[in-house]
Protein: Putative regulatory protein FmdB zinc ribbon domain-containing protein
Amino acid sequence: MPTYDFICENCGHKFSEFVSLREKDSVKCPVCNGKAKQRFTGFMYMGKGGTESGGCSGSCGSCSGCG
Ligand SMILES: [Zn+2]
Structure:
């Protein structure tokens, strides 16, 4: 079972929860017990080691855009 990243829609608290696919739609925030939604952060790491500069803000230090 994978760990998913969530963010609370109420207080903005970010946390990781070990839940099943079915349960991840009803995850509660551990801080305020508000409704949490799943975070998708994978796109931030896709460019690692690549040469594409399209999505780089000039701070990754490893792509052609930072040369
Ligand atoms: Zn919360």
Observations:
- Residues 5 and 42 are 11 Å apart (CA to CA).
